[in-house]
Amino acid sequence: MAANSPPAFDEQTLLHALQQGDRRACDELVRHYAPRLYNVALRLVGRPDEAEDVLQETFIAACQKIKQFKGKARLGTWLYRIATNNGLMRLRRRTPAISLDELAESWEEAEPHIVQPWPEDPEKAVDMAELRAVMEEAIRTLPESLRMAFVLRDIEGLSTQEAAEVLGISPGALKVRLHRARLLLRERLAEYFASAQEEGTR
Fold first, then answer.
1. How many domains does the chain have?
2. Which of the two ends of the chain, N or C, has the fewest CB atoms closer than 10 A to its terminal CB?
3. pLDDT in tens, 95-140
């Protein structure tokens, strides 16, 4: 290892320091996890200012409750759960008439949409910067239950078990939500590619 390389992140050492009340450990917790938790919060609530609030609330709650953390899940998984719960509470305050549990059930029971074919060469239909923007917009249009399954599993890289723990559902239910999310995203992106190709041939 090079002399100037930063020390490797050690979750157990950090957890021990946090539970001993080390203030520097809280700073390290924020430094290591803030970017990923902010991305999750932003994709859930859709507003940068609210995502910042979710992030702040998450770290305040984590540092206050760290002594209650029993280590049954990874520290990162626990933080994702707090951030997700905070984000969902904000969404419920925006639209209190909608039950997220009912929404999840309705999407999980629904028949899959017919998936349109991809263009032969997607990169010719749209440049990569535009593709990323289209993908982000497609993710934002997913129902909350499907969006969080996709973000945690496919974007953040959590395992199926970890993502299920964060959302408080079974691994089987997580897989169903993830499958629905991927189908919807594929359908919406295929529609966009088809439209872009049609524009390009005019």
1. 2
2. C
3. 654 444 444 444 444 444 434 444 444 444 445 677 778 888 888 8
Could you tell me which residues come within 8 angstroms of residue 161 by beta carbon, excluding any fewer than 6 positions away? Answer: 171
- Banded pLDDT at 202 (limits 50, 70, 90): low
188 in the same domain as 106: yes
HSE-up of 62 (CA within 13 Å, CB side)?
A: 31
Q: Are residues 111 and 196 in the same domain?
A: yes
The answer to whether residues 13 and 88 belong to one domain is yes
| Across 58-69, average pLDDT | 89
Residue 3 lies in a domain: no
The pLDDT of 158-182, averaged and rounded, is 94
Chain centroid offset of residue 67 CA: 26
The first and second tokens of residue 104, run together, are 């999840």
- The owner of tokens 């490797």 is 8
Residues spanned by the domain of 201:
98-202
Chain center to CA of 58: 14
Which is it for the CA torsion 111, 196, 125, 138, positive or negative?
A: negative
pTM, full prediction: 0.70
Q: Are residues 108 and 69 in the same domain?
A: no
